[in-house]
Design goal:
Chain lengths: 331, 289, 333
């Protein structure tokens, strides 16, 4: 199985390389980082623009530009210069990545747990009122634009905060990823503050994945519940609960690992929206700022990191699949 | 057991009959039809266009402006109808592009196998490894709101998903006797793909295309929301919600009305897709003997 | 005959489907005594599998089951699932048709046998594991110690079915119900599995209900036979009665479609047509549409299962006419 994982890992290297090249070309073709300089009034002197192009490597041909970007990244871990001379892309990415990963990881965990529970309950109580309720809410969240849901939750948070008649006391924070100032910054207080800021964005990001995953888990569970080996487990005289957990759920979880990994890219994209709505200073906001300012290297940095995360996520899923399914392990 | 290819007529009649049994899907189809009529016919008949600036600004819903007006004086009903038109148009084109490109992509990979398969599926991986919305945003920044360009970008990215699905289906179809028989009779690969593989994968293709419409609506609105989709003065449902987000409490009608329409369209389309899936997949007869 | 271990009386099962209620079983009765083998024969769709699932309460929740199933005098129908689970595996064990899907793919086969033992007994892990290896040995699996840690996908179909038989033997049940245990297997492997089944019966002293569509399987193994058609029994008796003096045209037809080496009567005589829809079973004899002997009475009045001599019973208005008749005479052209 180790060989299998290693092979998958090796295969993803060319995929990442080609992806980075294509994205680099597409983004480069869509506009130059000096476009905003040319658009301002009064006009920026041509000499300044040329200097700026030189600093960003824009005076080189496209292929060479990609080559030196890749070389810098692979040898020095350098993402390249930002259009903002005072900004360091690497430093920026590192601080913002923590914020985003925190959101994505917790949201995925929450989504997985409630999706599995909902899917299992739905399947076991097929065609009950509970099943219809869960199924309908799944469809509803699947049909909701993530940003609309996020704004709704934000409004709900503001409403809840105002329930005690004093909107200044905040239970749920609706803006930012942490408070800019804490009166008593102990370790515990900081933790509570960050957690309070996370609640609403996490829910809003988790609900989108929950919708798809609970539908998937329900289908997987139904298939397993109708399988011969579950019938044999019941025929052995095992208690219903044990049949459900040890035989049905255990096998019905296997396909979910693949689906989760496949959705990882989508969740990273969803985090961009969530961060925008809740005004987090994460990677999502950084991406949008960078696209707006035509900060090509910053956009590339974001895409590279996301691509890497997706590849690593898929690898983890592959390994997990092997652990869960002996048929793969021995293959 | 896969059924042998049946005469198209009786097959489609069977599908229609099974679909009609799915009450939620039928109700959704009716609702969606009404929404589309509302957008296009209503848009043509209503006294304001989305560009008109009326003297009433920031009005809550009234007889003169059933959905209210925004701070400049745009009639929200006219804006929502225009937004619906644009969003539906973009979403349908996304589904068409993704289906046509994806089906060809997947069918060629699955049918020819070996090197073609490896190359084409690695290419799909390349697309799937980066978050689509980010790529679409980066490219959309220069689309300057041209709606077909937005469809092209999102549809192109989505076609990688379709390719994966169709490849799986083609792989299992390829081994079946009637394909073998066609090959033995001297049919070429193009003929086999067009005449045998695609028709037999039609069910999943149509279901997928339906779901792509829902996904397309959501993708377009998300893209417009972060500012890289449809641009003012034109409008879309996503742009309307985006513009209204700072006014959720002061002028809630601006935010909730277009949002509800997005949910309605996506929800009904998904229910229709669900009904189609049941109708196309005879194995759905859920009880065993 | 000593007192029955398992007695099924007037069992009826209705399954809801998209098109309406299917009357899958319509009044099945049988008894088996300890150590005895009862063969239940019928085409697919005759309700034989559904009836065996009904005995153990393994049908979907929305199935409607009527009649009575008594295990040593204790009524099983209507027992809550928790109490039924104490009967399943310990007193009545089951073997299913398809060994390729019957075992959970994610656990080693030994663990699946241990689990069956521990569902009803607390012998301690080491003892249970040793017993699992013993059982594997008993059903004829070579190198049982090593095999017990194999996963199902590493075993052949025949070996998997023997593992299922080992699971059935694990708690020395009173009754083993084997539902088409050899249908999914190659002919050469069938004999091995039937042999394992015989071992299981001898080792546990259990009664065996052997369900199959294959008269050949029944012939060598069953003491008594029950022929089912369209959800109801049409002929019951000792194996000799049913095989050599069939009194129901359907049984006769089944025997006539069986190729035999001794080739007693020449040509094979197939039964034309297929079994009736059980959504709305015909009012008369269910076999009437396919029976060459049908007269109006058959279509109007369903024949009851009546004694035709000794314990031999058949459901045909004209069973007397079938004495000494060969399949060719009834079904031949």
């Amino acid at each position: 199985m180790f060989a299998y994982a290693a092979r998958r890992m090796l295969l993803s290297v060319p995929v990442l390389l080609v992806a980075s090249f294509l994205v680099f070309v597409l983004v480069a073709v869509s506009g130059s980082p000096t476009d905003p300089l040319r658009a301002v009034n009064p006009p920026v002197p041509e000499e300044t623009i040329r200097l700026e192009e030189r600093r960003l490597g824009w005076d080189q041909p496209l292929l060479q530009r990609y080559g030196s970007w890749l070389w810098g990244l692979v040898t020095r871990g350098d993402f390249g210069p930002s259009v903002n001379p005072r900004e360091d892309i690497n430093a920026e990415i590192v601080t913002r990545m923590g914020v985003t990963l925190r959101l994505v990881a917790v949201a995925m965990l929450v989504a997985l747990v409630i999706a599995v529970v909902a899917g299992v309950v739905s399947a076991v109580r097929q065609y009950s009122a509970l099943d219809y309720g869960i199924t309908f809410s799944g469809f509803l969240f699947l049909a909701m634009p993530s940003f609309w849901l996020a704004v709704l939750l934000k409004e709900a948070g503001i409403w809840i905060n105002g329930l005690d008649g004093d909107p200044r006391t905040q239970l749920l924070f609706t803006i930012g990823d942490r408070s800019p100032y804490l009166a008593d910054p102990t370790w515990w207080n900081r933790f509570v503050d960050v957690a309070g800021h996370m609640i609403l964005p996490t829910i809003s990001l988790a609900l989108i994945s929950f919708a798809a995953w609970s539908r998937f888990q329900r289908a997987a569970m139904l298939e397993v519940l109708g399988s011969d080996y579950v019938r044999l487990a019941r025929a052995k005289g095992l208690p219903a609960r044990r049949v459900l957990t040890r035989h049905a759920l255990r096998t019905a979880l296997i396909p979910l690992t693949t689906v989760t990994a496949m959705d990882l890219a989508g969740i990273l994209g969803g985090a961009v929206i969530t961060e925008t709505v809740f005004q987090w200073q994460g990677m999502g906001a950084y991406l949008i700022d960078s696209i707006t300012t035509r900060d090509l290297y910053a956009v590339m940095a974001w895409l590279t990191i996301s691509g890497l995360l997706v590849v690593v996520g898929n690898l983890v899923a592959d390994l997990l699949y092997g652990v869960l399914d002996p048929r793969i392990r021995h293959a | 057991m896969p059924e042998p290819p049946v005469p198209a007529r009786s097959q489609s009649r069977l599908v229609v009959r099974r679909f009609l049994r799915h009450r939620l899907a039928v109700a959704s189809l009716a609702t969606l039809t009404l929404i589309v009529l509302f957008a296009y016919v209503g848009g043509a008949l209503w006294r304001y266009s989305h560009l008109d600036i009326t003297p009433d600004n920031s009005q809550p819903p009234s007889w003169a402006h059933p959905f209210g007006t925004d701070s400049i004086g745009h009639d929200t009903l006219a804006q929502v109808m225009r937004g619906l038109q644009q969003s539906i148009k973009i979403a349908v084109l996304i589904a068409v592009i993704a289906t046509v490109v994806g089906a060809t992509w997947g069918a060629v990979a699955g049918y020819f196998g070996r090197l073609a398969d490896t190359a084409l599926m690695r290419a799909a991986d390349v697309v799937l490894v980066v978050p689509g919305i980010a790529v679409a945003a980066a490219l959309g920044a220069s689309s300057s709101g041209r709606w077909w360009l937005i469809s092209l970008i999102i549809g192109g990215l989505a076609s990688a998903y379709v390719a994966r699905v169709i490849r799986g289906i083609v792989l299992s179809l390829r081994e079946q006797d009637f394909i073998e028989a066609a090959r033995a009779l001297g049919a070429g690969p193009g003929w086999i793909i067009v005449r045998h593989l695609i028709p037999n994968a039609l069910g999943p293709l149509i279901v997928n295309a339906t779901i792509l419409v829902a996904g397309g609506i959501l993708a377009e609105t998300a893209l417009s929301f972060i500012g890289f989709g449809v641009q003012s003065p034109d409008t879309s449902l996503g742009l309307l919600v985006s513009d209204a987000r700072s006014a959720v409490r002061t002028r809630p009608w601006l935010f909730y009305t277009p949002g509800v329409f997005i949910v309605l369209v996506a929800l009904t389309v998904n229910f229709i897709g669900d009904g189609l899936r049941d109708a196309f997949d005879p194995r759905q007869s859920r009880r065993r003997r | 005959m000593n007192s029955p271990v398992l007695a099924v009386r007037d069992l009826t099962v209705a399954l809801p489907t998209e098109d309406g209620q299917v009357q899958a079983v319509r009044g099945l009765s049988y008894e088996v005594a300890a150590g005895e083998v009862l063969g239940i024969v019928g085409e697919s769709g005759s309700g034989k599998s559904v009836s065996s699932l009904a005995v153990l309460g393994l049908l979907p929740r929305d199935a409607r089951v009527g009649g009575s199933v008594k295990l040593r005098g204790q009524e099983l129908l209507g027992l809550p699932d928790r109490e039924l689970s104490r009967v399943r595996g310990r007193r009545v064990a089951m073997i299913f048709q398809d060994p390729m899907t019957a075992l959970n793919p994610v656990y080693p086969v030994g663990a699946q046998i241990v689990e069956a033992i521990e569902a009803h007994q607390r012998p301690g892990r080491g003892v249970a594991e040793r017993r699992a290896v013993e059982l594997l040995d008993l059903v004829g699996i070579a190198d049982p110690r090593r095999r017990s840690s194999s996963y199902p996908h590493e075993l052949s179909g025949g070996m998997r079915q023997r593992v299922v038989i080992a699971i059935a033997m694990a708690n020395d049940p009173d009754v083993i119900i084997a539902d088409e245990p050899t249908t999914a297997l190659d002919v050469t492997v069938q004999a091995q599995v039937l042999e394992a089944l015989r071992t299981a019966r001898q080792a546990t002293g259990a009664a065996l209900v052997l369900i199959t569509h294959d008269l050949g399987v029944i012939a060598g193994h069953a003491d008594r036979v029950c022929v089912m058609y369209a959800g109801a029994p049409v002929e019951t008796g000792t194996a000799d009665d049913v095989f050599y003096q069939p009194r129901m045209p359907y049984t006769l037809g089944l025997l006539g479609s069986l190729p035999r080496i001794d080739n007693r009567g020449g040509r094979l005589t197939p039964i034309v047509g297929g079994p009736p829809s059980l959504l709305a079973p015909p009012p008369g004899c269910a076999f009437a549409p396919r029976c060459p002997m049908t007269v109006d009475r058959c279509r109007e009045q369903a024949p009851l299962l009546t004694a035709v001599g000794g314990g031999h019973r058949a459901a045909c208005h004209f069973h007397e006419r079938l004495v000494g008749v060969s399949p060719q005479e009834v079904f031949g052209p």
